[in-house]
Amino acid sequence: MSKSLFITGTGTDVGKTYVTGLIVKKLREGGASAAYYKAAMSGNDRRADGTLIPGDALQVKRMSGIEQPLEEMCPYIYETAVSPHLAAKLEGKPLEMECVLKHFDYVCGKYEHITAEGSGGILCPLRFDEQQIQQEDFIKARSLSCLMIADAGLGTINAVGLTAEYMKAHKIPVRGIIFNRYDPGNPLHEDNRLMCEAMTGLHIIACVKDGDTDLDMPFELLEGFYEENGGGRK
User: For the whole prediction, is pTM greater than 0.90?
Assistant: First the structure.
């Protein structure tokens, strides 16, 4: 049985993909059969042949060194650099939950540890037209637990607190927080760490500094956050 974990962020540009790359790398180096998955990516460049490059997937693949093909990593790839729900409208390729789950289950059938990255923050919609699909719909469909990625700098107390409260209210399990762009000894960053833990009851399980190429936490601790998939897999 494969195990999975969902990575969300407190917003756009907090370094969620970068940290995800370090997570997947730690798993691979620890001997795990590691894979990456993202339901929808927007803001991607085109190859010379006109096909879209799944940029986040490529970054994770290069950082982690996993051999998983890019074609397995994301079923919905958009060029326009906006929220996936709007990119889908503009490009005429709406996301279908059945497709998202089918591709995810395929990856789960091939690899032991699947790290699923969300798009933007937890409230970023995947589809919003005659159908409304939120990221939590995917999370709950496969009974995934989550890690939250947050920028260590100014504003993170509010961003972490609001994200945690939303996820708690919607019964989305959060196993912990990883701070990105962390500067050890910086009074603001140190206080943010203490305050986020105090105000959410969640632990800061790791801190990533600018330029880090490894995740500073034991493999066994990281692996323990991954849980067996559920919620309808056959």
Answer: yes
